[in-house]
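Q: A reviewer asked whether we had any structural model of the full assembly, not just the individual parts. We don't, so I'm hoping you can provide one. Inputs are below.
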Amino acid sequence: MKKALALAVLALVVAAPFGLKPYGIYLLSLWAVMTIAAIGLNLTLGYAGQISLAQASFVGIGAYTAALLTTQGWPLGAAFALAALLCFVIGWLLGYPALRVAHHYLAFVTLAFATLVYLILRNEEWLTRGVYGISGIPRPTLLGWSTKAPLDFYFFCLGVLVLASAAAWWLLRSPWGRAFTALRENPIRASSLGIDTRRYTLMAFAIGSALGGIAGVLYAPLVQFIEPTAFTLGLSFNLLLMVIVGGAGRFAGPFLGAAVSVLLPEWLRFSEGLYLMIYAVFVIVLLAFCPSGLLGLAERLRDSWPRFFKSAT
Amino acid sequence: MLLAGLATGGIYSLVAIGFVLLWQTSQTINFAQGEFVMLPAFFVLAAMKFGGLSFAAAMGVGLAVSLLVLGLLFKRLVVDPVIRHGVLPLVISTIALAILMKEGVKEFYAADAQPFPAAWATTNLQVGGAVVSVQNLVIIAVAVLAVVALQYFLGATRTGRRMQATAQNPLLARVLGIPVGRMVLYTFLINAGLVALASFLVSPIYLAKFTNGETLGLVAFVAAIVGGFNQVRGAIAGGLLLGVADNFVAAYLSAQYRAAIPLLLLIAVILWRPQGLLGRAEERSV
Amino acid sequence: MKMFLTAVLALAASGAAAQQTVNMPIVIELSGAGAVSGTNFRDGAVLAIEEINAKGGILKRKISAPQSDTQSNPGVSRAQVQKAIDSDPYVILGPVFSGSVKVNMILCQQAEVPQITGAEAADITQAGNPYIFRTSFGQQMSMPKIANYIRDGLKARTVSVLWVNNDFGKGGRDTFVKEMAARNIKVVSDVSTESGQVDFAADVVRLKGANADAIFVYTNEEESARFLREARKQGISKPLIGETTLLGQKVIELAGAAANGVKGHVGLTVDAPVAAVQAFRAKFQKRFNYLPDHNGIKGYTGVYAVKHATEKIGKFDRRLLAKTLHGLTIKPEQEPGILMEATWDANGDIDRISFLAEVVDGKQKIVQTLPKLGK
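A: Here is a predicted structure for the entire assembly that you could use as a starting point for your response.
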């Protein structure tokens, strides 16, 4: 049943852009990029149970890496590699002291880091062109296939998303991944079984951050202009909500959460300014009743009405 | 200059104290604390605009509504239902709440800044050659009074001591017959009162605007951690330190990186003295 | 067969519908940091559109102007402009925030859609984009005027500058510093501040310490007001000079008595001693129940400029419109909606008369009228 659903979703995202105007395709591409970042955050939050408020900063680091490299003529692949490495290392360095202390401290450290990164991006003009931003970011050409057109670039994003998802899936199914899950369920028992909880949490955070960087590398050629204010706490909160609403700790959570977040302003366009308020209230209510997000809600429904689903399978 | 720093620090302290109290007694990490400071000013403005009240009456109404909404309703409607799922969902809820409050003010009141009347004179004094602003003096005075009153309440009155007991060991407190639920409610009310006070002090200078909460909230968290999370004294020290440091750095060092000071202090404290400058060492409970 | 017919009918219907209106989407800051400016711009544009539609529209077609909110976020603005372009517009109005404009003008340029903006950052018109047009001075036009005033009117030898650290403020500061250097006036203190900053105590201390002959203040509305209050509190005695924003209505309202004595150059103002502008101000207040600021004029005159140029060409042709606007001068006698004579140069920059003003008793008072830079 799950496999069929996954295939259906895949077919949907492949077919979806064909009926849409460039704006719709742009939204889909944005969804793909945000999902990658959300998958990373899901590792940190959903599986390892740590709040990271700096995911947007890693996206920003990835985006600036890509922008600086590609505007100098380097290929995007180099940016992917460099950004992933950079974010992984920074994530590790950031998490190491924070996790030494206590559970909730990572949240505050990432908060501090997020603001710091913004300041550096803005003030260090010699590197980042500061508030003026970097424009004219080119879209890559893969073996002769140019991704300049919206549709082509969307498929490129989709491709990276599939790769990232596959990597995450493999990671979670591996012994490493099972350790992560053990961490989340019962940290005391995990450590009594000899798992170095701190090391695994740190790994989760570092990998999650690296995925954020990869999302950023895609973001830069998507928007084709970047400047520091795109990568502030607001985006981090947004990503956090994506993971929570979709369902933290569930593999498909980020996909759903990102879709809700990107499409919600469109659906609620009639409510103009109220849509954020509606979203916020929805999140609070959701958390009060079903903290495992929309997917958790779906699971609960499925469990309490088995007869409906039995016939379907 | 020092005075300005102390005044700013005083405000930070008030906000940080409330934050620490909530955390200590009910494990509530309130990410909406900054917005809590932003909101009371708007209650007052709304009372004046829609209710036609005088400023003094409106302040009273504003305080009462703050206690109700930010104290009682916050606890009953947001914290209680969510906290049984754990601290993490609660943190996210408060983030969502912050967004809700910001957008609410923006939509239902105004998107631009509003002038907010001051309850004192906006004049200056000449003290020994330096220009001293009455505003700063008033802020410091009020902040000090509030803290002293709070300390007295917590230390010398029966209710206060019961609240402290609840904070230190809720289980034992309950065994001893202390109505824990009610004690926790009191902390929420005290927090609401503190943020309302901070709001009235700060809005005449900062002007009332829906984005006011963003920086204040961040500084409150940092002040609380830097000072020492498990002591009210820590929050005071943290707040003052940040206020003064911020002003001095901006005036004499780099204006561009001024916002980094709280953060650098935070990282430094976490690395070398995680319990904060005045805090007690807390054991890591996995 | 049925499907085919339905399709044909649908196409015909949409074609016919398109005949009735001309599509001019407004992509503007309605929330976030730029909300005040954006709302003013939009309302000015809406006022113009309503007036024009009441008289039958442009070339017998009514204007349809769907609005979208950029949320003062360049990324969002890009998406909104993309959406607007998808709807096959004639012209796009807005945004007002320089950061947003720089992102989305690339899109408009690629789609060959003329864009009328109120943004002031200098580099917007220096990127070789033939489809961008301003209805307010770029910083490269306004700064020389201020610099002249500082040199000749105030006779200052040293100056301090306080600016907001975003592309608007930085662009202004960079241009300003350049103009000061060209006039041999020394910049003794360079203070950067944050957008949304609330506490200016430290910045005022720095400025006092630098003790320049004049202080140039270049930040957004609310920050200007907070700064002025703090300056008054700490007793700054040197003249405070600004460019349009500092002397604006909103700042005066928020700063109260602290705004008195501020002087500066005002490119656009609703207090101009020009009858047409006064009439506009009254009309605006009647329609929207608040006093407009200069952004309202930007929106209003932008729409009328498009109307006039289109009628000149006689048809709706985007490329031709852009070509026509370059080098065009519109006089109020020809087109009352333009309010003051305006000329566009090859880059899309506008040239107009402007004013020197001072805030007296809580009101902006025009002290002198300055002629256009070119003729």
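A: Points you may want to mention in the reply: The beta strands of chain B are 124-127, 130-133. The first strand of chain B starts at residue 124 and ends at 127.
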